[in-house]
Amino acid sequence: MNEFKRCMRVFSHSPFKVRLMLISMLCEMINGKPEQDKPSSH
């Protein structure tokens, strides 16, 4: 739970662009994109 609080703290202090990027990453994870077998090296 501490990690979640830390993530929320970073999220609340991050600029809007970073928030959008994180949200899109979350949506991709939740939607389960077909290209999951590729290693995410970005």
Mean pLDDT, all residues: 80
Rg from alpha-carbon coordinates: 12 Å
Cα separation of the termini: 26 Å
Largest sheet: none
Task: State the share of residues found in helices, binned by percent.
Answer: 55-70%
* Residues in β-strands, percent: under 5%
- Output the number of helix runs: 2
Counting helices, strands and paired strands, the structural category is mainly alpha
User: Using DSSP, what is the number of strands?
Assistant: 0
Pfam families: MntS (PF26599)
Organism: Citrobacter enshiensis
Protein name: Manganase accumulation protein MntS
Give a structural overview.
The protein is an all-alpha fold and 42 residues long. The protein is extended and about 30 Å long. The protein starts with a helix and ends in an 11-residue tail after the last helix. The mean pLDDT is 80.
Features:
42 residues; mainly alpha; extended
Helices and strands in order:
Elements: H1 2-13, H2 16-31
Offer a concise description of the structure:
The protein is mainly α and 42 residues long.
